[in-house]
Amino acid sequence: MDGQRIVVVGGGTGMGRAAARALAQRGAHVAIGGRREDALRGTAHGTSIRYKTIDVAIRSSVDAFFDWAAEQLGGIDVMINAAGINIKNRSMAEMRPEQWDQVLAINATGAYNCLRAVLPEMRARKRGLVINISSVAGKRALALGGIAYSASKFAMTSLGLCVSNEVASDGIRVTNVYPGEVNTPLLEQRPAPVSEDHRARILQPEDVAAVIVNLIELPEAVHIPEIVVKPLSQQWY
């Protein structure tokens, strides 16, 4: 891990924040991006982590961020995409069209924008690792995630797998991580409040960060295309 140059998109909160701090503690050079500068500053506090705002739905913002990150780090060995949103009114009957557009723009098109920005340098160097933080809602159609969120994560799943097949010959690995329920700020967007007991039973961001660390520490010849990580209390459908 020491000396690895790692970018974490969505590094201000939740799983992205936990991963960025865990990686920095292990000696990686880490740059993070997200929409809120105050959240990014909180992640970076007390560490060597660099940060810059990014809106993954806007291609020019993504391109500017990755140009900055490559300059700051001297290149990018690993890109972790942990950016994502959800909405409270998750059914087809209740969801507004503009909410569909927003969720797909960030979760699906945002993932494409980040891949498009980071892959050329990795291809030129014939090495690299991309970790997409998707969701079990991107493997199974779950009412818990909702219509827009599940559709966006299915898109992210297919995107990651198709790109993985394409870039393997360039020495690049792409891994989709599918977390189950995780105690992150995204729970605030649940239609019904989540109890503290429930939060304690499910995954914590640091649990997913540990999986990410393990993936990065694998030999470069080892490729894990997909991995599901869930709390023991959550069924796997």
Secondary-structure-based class equals alpha/beta
Which strand order spans the largest sheet, edge to edge or round the barrel? Answer: 3-2-1-4-5-6-7
What's the helix count?
7
Kindly report the average pLDDT value. 96
Number of domains: 1
CATH class: Alpha Beta
Query: Per DSSP, what share of the residues sits in E-state strands of 2 or more residues?
Result: 15-25%
Radius of gyration: 17 Å
CATH topology: Rossmann fold
- The rounded distance between the terminal residues' Cα atoms is 35 Å
Number of strands: 7
What is the CATH architecture annotation?
3-Layer(aba) Sandwich
Basic shape = globular
The major β-sheet equals: 7 strands, parallel
CATH homologous superfamily designation = NAD(P)-binding Rossmann-like Domain
Residues in helices, as a percent range? 40-55%
Elements, N to C (H/E): EHEHEHEHEHEHHE
Could you name the ranges where pLDDT drops below 50 across 5 or more consecutive residues? none
Features of this protein?
single chain; 237 residues; alpha/beta; Rossmann fold; seven-stranded parallel sheet; 7 helices; 7 strands; 44% helix; globular
